[in-house]
Known about the structure:
- Helices cover 46% and strands 18% of the residues.
- It is an alpha/beta fold.
- Strands 2-1-3-5-4 form a five-stranded mixed β-sheet.
- The radius of gyration is 20 Å and the shape is elongated.
- The model has no long low-confidence stretch (mean pLDDT 87).
Amino acid sequence: xxxxxxxxxxxxxxxxxxxxxxxxxxxxxxxxxxxxxYASQRLEVRRLGGTSTDFNRRYFILLEWARRRxxxxxxxxxxxxxxxxxxxxxxxxxxxxxxxxxEVAPMKVPSGWLALIQGTRRPEGWRVVAELPYGALxxxxx
Length: 142
């Protein structure tokens, strides 16, 4: 058991050294401050306050509202941001709705899927399922 504790200590120390040598000192302070402020908060709140959503916080709020309002039997979701989002934003979108199949700005929406539109546009042939902050959840009109 003693050897195992030693290995845990060495691994932890190695990770700490790597972290301290790879991160600029101001980023370390910012991360510690973030942990102090958000560690006890729910995951959604931590994400909203973190760097994964800093490209467009309104977009993340829309994703969170949509996740809560999705009908149970939704086969998939096509998400249309109001502006181009970075690759990390596309990954965040897909991850946020997993395991539901999700695509960001697809050329064609697969049959039966819902659409999440950021902004005020409402395309023809779609019916509003739910109005959300900063957008709407839509389904194909019958």
